[in-house]
Records
---
Amino acid sequence: MKVYSNRTIGISGTLLLLFAPVMLAAIASAALQALPQPRSQGGQSLEESIAARRSVRRYADAPLTQDEIGQLCWSAQGITDTRRGFRAAPSAGATFPLELYVATEDGVFRYLPEQHALERHLEDDIRRGLRRAGLGQSMLEEAPAVFIFAADVRRTARRYGERAERYVWMEVGHASQNLLLQIVALDLAAVPIGAFRDDDLARVLRLPDGQQPFYLVPVGRPSANPNANM
């Protein structure tokens, strides 16, 4: 037996002290879902994606693949300059106030641009709650995935003061348009939504202090019935 700070610790306790950092690192790693490597080339031109983009509100009953989710996350907030850490969408002063979440039947995940991975944020399927906070818009519950743009305006305000919120709204627009065009390029469908009760949505998402929701984008495969998408 060894004595540490007047307390006696057995062999098992000593091993726990030695390996606790390794165990904690393993737990943290297990909480991350690595995403497939994003592609920087595709079969559809930018001009074709712009021309084909439409708001679609009804989706087939089929989940998105991990490849699709990873590509969509990358298009909105992925690292495109590994040396300087710049992202796919411009950010005022590279202050990066945005947080991107993905809500599916498996829970809610936060996108980590530096690791190109998903971190579990919530265990629950919150899409019904998104629908309630989103004024009853059914696509928020029916879409297989809802991409949620949140932001911490303070990150930008430290540099730009009272103009920060204006810059954050611009950045949400940049990132969401990237997302919408990538959705078209992947033969998926979506509709951007800004109509929701802010406080209710923040509670449903259990956002950390300082973060607020800005935009919702339900995504899925287009419904086979073209009249259902109007």
---
Amino acid sequence: MTLPRRKELELAILEELAKVGGRARPVELYQRVAARFNLAPEDEAWRRNRQWAQQDLSQKGELDSTEGGVWAITEKGLAKLGKPKAVSRPAAMAEPSPAWAPAGLADLADSQERTVRERLLERIKAVSPAEFERLVARVLEALGFSRVWVTGLSGDGGLDGECYLAQLDLKAAFQAKRFASHNVGGPLMAEFRGHIQGKYERGIYITTTDFSPGAVEIAESGGGVRILLVNGARLLEIMMEHGLGVTSEPLFVRRLDEPFFQGLSAG
């Protein structure tokens, strides 16, 4: 199995999104892209690459993942594909049925998913700053980083820890901000970048909220260490996908066994 290059993967994500009307759930989109490249869904390298590709697309403004459990191609993403701005909304993502309509299993699953996401975010925001740093360390390990080290200190020089990605021989520093409401602003991002410049190949900034336009501009500006941004919505996606802080239970659907009854008449 040969993994696609990052640019190929990013383009495939945008193209598959456009095919289904511009919006899709990550799991459904992963399946379509994996089938396109004949990739095994459970392969760890594939899982890591698709997460980095999603992050890159979001930072470039070509993909919107701020809506819980749904990814959407942006006008900038459509422009990259040379497609018109208007994208039809697929039936699977249509407006909810009237309240009196019976809910299907997919509706129930979506409702439970939203509830768990909300409760998970509340629980994350309730941990202490030190606990959040350790949580971020677990997230980085799930993404394939090794030698994850947390400083465990307050006033730690603008860094909460460092980690290593063997596949790219890349040493990175990370910063974790557990905010209740306000976003990470430009000054905090500039401070972080100043601390890692010349010492690390990559920076990773993870928060429970989001990043201001000024912070995003600093993280993406050239001439310095590149900083990958993981906002609250993306953090929840990673944790739920890797089973961090959540558990999954099988759902059994019972159906009528008509062959059983047909067999009775044959006897």
---
Amino acid sequence: MTFGPGRWPPIVYNIQMDKPKRATTGQLVADLLRKQILAGHLAPEQKLDEDRLSEELGVSRTPLREAFSALEREGLVLHWPYRGRFVAPRDAAMVVQLLPIIGALEAKAVALQHKWTGAQLDQLSDINRQIADPNRSAGERHQLDREWHELLISGCTNALLRDLIAHQRMLAGVHDGGEQRGMADVRRSTEEHQAIIEAIRRGDFAEAHNRTQEHWDNGVMTIALWRNQQGEGNE
């Protein structure tokens, strides 16, 4: 990747220009690098050149190293002694392990929510229709799917559970190629989404729990098939 103007989002290209008062520079750098990794702009196993990043982002090495440390804890960056830091490689086996975990956590979050409004369920259905729109790009579908799942658990009052789900989703995003893939099986996913919505609408939260878990379990097979088609199955 070539760093420089036009390669980074304009508002964060020079991070010193406009940063939220409550965020440290290191946190902003971590947010930016995280987005670039998840979007595939920083490729798996790509070396993170500290000097170049420091210059291009307009920050010193201290906040940059703070960002690296945060991303290492998240599993997005690896530090190899005497070689430097690299974007973590994709691991197809990790997808198989992560998605059932996300499914179990999200299913629990859904089961804990017994207060739903018609407007919330209508919004879930509306997003689902947008996902099914054949004119949507892969990236747009991926973003809409993420919004759908975030809305699905937004009413869960267990903040720790929501944080756990967010972290596991982030890790899955690194390994499953989601930003590039979009949705591997749009029809299946949207049908399963709607089944979850209808179970909630009926007040059958046990069914909604089971449907949510099943949705993520099916996703393992769908993503594995897609990755094999892309020649990534043996990573």
---
Amino acid sequence: MVKSYMPRRIAFYTFYDPNGQVKDYVLYYLSALKTIAQKVIVIVNGSLSDSGRDKLQNLGAELLIRENRGLDFGAWKAAVKHIGFENLAAFSELILTNCSCYGPLYHFNTLFQKMDKKTNIDFWGITLFPTTKNALPPWPAPILQKHVQSYFLVLRSPILESNAFQQWWENLTEYDTYYEEVFYHEIAFTQYLALQGYQYDVVISVPTDKIMTFEGMLQSLQQKSPFIKRKALTETNCWLRALLYRYLRCHTNYDLKLIEEEVSVISPIKQSKCYELLAILRLHFVYIRYFLLFRIFRSEHYRQKYNRIKTIKDILLSVKKRT
């Protein structure tokens, strides 16, 4: 009997909580990681409570606790140094990820089985951020090159065994602001690997003009994105939160209590059926409004607005009750 081949994977998970508390959504994510990675290292940026330490140790994750500096790439650099380049090269894949998302919304096995078939690539992620021009300060430069977003990034053995990989981490300068981290690390990492001749791909394909919109977020979920950004449920208005919550409730089997534990403001949405109904009714009102404005004025602006709202409405109203 021929046994199925499973790549030998190691995962680096960056964790930060201002109070050092480990919530259940983190444990769920890490438990899922352990199903597809033989070794999981949690790099804690900052402090960790006693209860948080116990939770992570009981999960079987290896802990690396460090000063809160350098954000994700600083944490991953510390993990690379901790493991060593020679030991890393013994793995077939390195997963770089962090605690910025809820998920996985679907089984990791399905995701990796899909991407394992793409044998002509050297690294991959979930989403590709498009080239952006005319970026304003505090961005370091006005042009942001397209890049694989680093909230979930998988590097394969040709990269792990290369001198270029080692040089990247040895020369890495740590930054402590979001804009510097994205510009000098997340964007630069894709560009650096591509210049070395490494090929990449992403799981989700969303039109470049919609990647940062609510419409694009829903399209990503519709294409079975395994994650949703936590800030999508903490930094959006209450109406969009209600619609996202409805999508997750109806389309996935993700335990929404994992979200409610952290985002207490969402709890009333689940408890009040009329709140979700109000959000859907409001969406219908906006849809009718832009439909009428387009029919009256025949404006390209209103046509685009109408098409966007129609896409959102169609995605949300196509959902079926999960079993």
